Amino acid sequence: MEARITGHTVLTGLLGSPVAHSISPMMHNESFRRLGLDYAYLAFNVGTENLKAAVEGLKVLGVRGFNLTMPDKNLMAEYCDHLSPAAEIIGAVNTVVNENGVLTGHTTDGIGYMQAAKDAGFDFTGKTMTLLGGGGAATAICVQAALDGLKEIHVFNIKDPFFPRLQSLVERINERTGCKVTLDDLADKAALKSAVENSHILTNGTSVGMSPNTDGCLIEDMSLFRPDLIVSDVIYNPEETKLLRLAREHGCRTFNGLYMLLYQGAAAFKLWTGQDMPVDVIKEKYFTR
């Protein structure tokens, strides 16, 4: 293979722990190669205890930007000079752009979900969603969906220690967007039934159903599945979760979280380079089902 690193190569990368499994280096480096960009993307195993030092080092080295994965997303928001509207509402960052030492934090996970929905042929503008979960993926989806013009979002989460924090997030979304967001206990089956019956989209934003625990499914009432309900899952391993299988068997249209991963990366790529990731090529090479 021809050596591609030069004295002008621009560095980007991923911070988190663990990161060795990530597909992001392959996605981005192949995209740089395809577009003839003198960039490189590396993965760095950095947890929260060393995040501040790593970020200061990357600033000194003049990196163009970097991604964050668990467990660094929330803490990174504190180290940014500026935050995008979505990142400010959530209080978490998965993409940083470095402009001469000034760091701007973005969250592209929700952008990835909304683009994946469009890719599947769905326009959620003005629609109502029931969203299961209140973790990182779910909150990113909730905020971006609200910013992108959904009319109403019903969020359901277990009454865990993070529930008050989620209530605060819902209040911020209601204050800063035109979307009406409500929060209920996932154990409230009557509220869940009512929400799904009045929704166009049902989305699982939790890890329930993810491999190897593929028997999990948060929807127990099969009457909630109807042909005009769109059902999505942030999980992509397995490709079809129990939720998606049951929904499909009851006539629902479905999509999983595989392309959410692709499009969140594409959004970061555009922020760093100003160019569009060759998503069709990347999709075929790394995201074929």
Structure description:
With 289 residues, the protein is an alpha/beta fold. 39% of the residues lie in helices and 20% in strands. A six-stranded mixed beta sheet has the order 2-1-3-5-6-4, sandwiched between helices. Helix 1 packs across helix 11. The longest helix has 16 residues. It is globular and about 60 Å long. The model has no long low-confidence stretch (mean pLDDT 95).
Question: Could you provide a short overview of the structure?
Answer:
This protein has 289 residues and is an alpha/beta fold. It has eleven helices and twelve strands.
Please work out how many helical segments DSSP would assign: 11
Low-confidence stretches: none
The arrangement of helices and strands along the chain is EHEHEHEHEEHEHEHEHEEHEHH
Main beta sheet strand tally, sense and closure: 6 strands, mixed
Strand content: 15-25%
Number of strands: 12
The overall average pLDDT, rounded, is 95
Shape: globular
In spatial order, strands of the major sheet run 2-1-3-5-6-4
- Protein structure class: alpha/beta
Radius of gyration: 19 Å
Gap from first CA to last CA: 28 Å
Give the helix proportion (percent range): 25-40%
Key terms:
6-stranded parallel beta sheet, 11 helices, 6-stranded mixed beta sheet, 20% strand, alpha/beta, 289 residues
List the helices and strands and how they pair.
Elements: E1 10-16, H1 24-35, E2 39-45, H2 51-61, E3 65-68, H3 73-79, E4 82-83, H4 85-90, E5 95-99, E6 102-106, H5 109-119, E7 128-132, H6 136-147, E8 152-157, H7 163-176, E9 180-185, H8 189-197, E10 201-204, E11 230-233, H9 242-249, E12 253-255, H10 258-273, H11 279-286
Parallel strand pairs: 1-2, 1-3, 4-6, 7-8, 7-10, 8-9, 10-11, 11-12
Antiparallel strand pairs: 3-5, 5-6
